[in-house]
UniProtKB/TrEMBL annotation:
It comes from the Bacteria. This is SGNH hydrolase-type esterase domain-containing protein. It comes from Lacticaseibacillus nasuensis JCM 17158. Residues 111-285 form the SGNH hydrolase-type esterase domain.
Length: 302
């Protein structure tokens, strides 16, 4: 067995390293994968072909070959440059100036999602933190990287929302259309017939219906789903099509970043705005994504 260690402890948080390795190595091995946790100690298993253990350093164990290692290391080097460029202090939420005249000021908004809502490539700070800092949003940020809408695991969107009981009714609810369901083999499912109130939360559509029904029943607040900026992906495209069908049924709003040509063009003009095709840096959030959420939420609450 051959080992290769790469010390990144002073450059990147271990949780983000795990995300980076999943993204960088996915094209080189079988696309199916399982993930365990994120944090100071995480584990990512690529179908038994490559394993990464994260403690104080990152160790590549039983890689498929030297070529994979070389590509992964090259990718990590380029990614580190993008992250350093995009996460400079002037782009952090703490650098923002609070606007007490914002129409979002004092609004209680719950944000449910995974790595993009969390800010996996932005030191855990996303558009949610930007809106709190610049617009005075009182945010409930329910975000865990690598999680899915579907499933009964404690980390799933469905389970986390079920366990969340705010003391004050939220003014709005925002949900990320996860890119992880298709990658982790969650079945898409089917839209329930009108009048049905029990849904199959082991499917992605059933999970969305479960989430929307709970928010409408318990909180009665407007709902915004957002899609992610992602390169063409058949599973995700099918999920977006299903989301639009669900929109006709439940009348929630959609912020379609996936189909936003202007955002895609602006992203190309801002080196360092994205870690990869899906995960923004603080620059990407503050300059490109947060203004879109500010506008969408302003319209939602008008």
């Amino acid at each position: 067995m051959q080992y290769l260690s790469l010390e990144l402890k002073n450059v990147l948080p271990a949780a983000l390293v795990g995300e980076m390795l999943v993204i960088l190595l996915r094209p080189l091995v079988d696309n199916r994968l399982s993930m365990w946790g994120c944090g100071s100690r995480g584990r990512v298993l690529f179908c038994g072909q490559a394993e990464v253990l994260m403690t104080k350093s990152v160790r590549f164990v039983e890689m498929v070959g030297a070529g994979v290692t070389a590509v992964a290391l090259t990718g990590l080097a380029h990614a580190t440059v993008r992250l350093a460029r995009g996460n400079q202090p002037q782009y952090a939420p703490g650098a923002a100036t609070l606007d007490p005249t914002s129409p979002l000021y004092g609004k209680r908004i719950v944000f449910l999602g995974s790595s993009i809502t969390y800010g996996a490539a932005a030191h855990g700070r996303s558009f949610v933190d930007d809106l709190a800092a610049s617009d005075g949003v009182i945010a409930g940020k329910l975000a865990i990287s690598g999680t899915t809408l579907a499933g009964h695991e404690a980390s799933s969107y469905v389970s986390r929302l079920a366990a969340f009981h705010p003391a004050v009714t939220p003014d709005a609810f925002v949900c990320q259309l996860s890119t992880n369901d298709g990658r982790q083999g969650k079945p898409l499912g089917m839209i329930a017939e009108p009048g049905v109130t029990q849904f199959d939360a082991d499917t992605t559509i059933g999970a969305i219906e479960t989430i929307v029904s709970r928010v409408q029943r318990d909180w009665g607040c407007p709902i915004l789903f957002y899609t992610c900026l992602l390169q063409p992906d058949a599973d995700y495209s099918a999920l977006i099509a299903a989301l639009r069908q669900l929109q006709a049924k439940y009348h929630f709003a959609i912020l379609d970043l996936h189909g936003d040509a202007a955002l895609a063009s602006a992203t190309k003009q801002h080196p360092g705005a994205m870690f990869d095709d899906a995960h923004p840096t603080q620059l990407g959030y503050s300059k490109l994504w947060t203004p879109l959420f500010r506008q969408a939420l302003g319209n939602l609450l008008a």
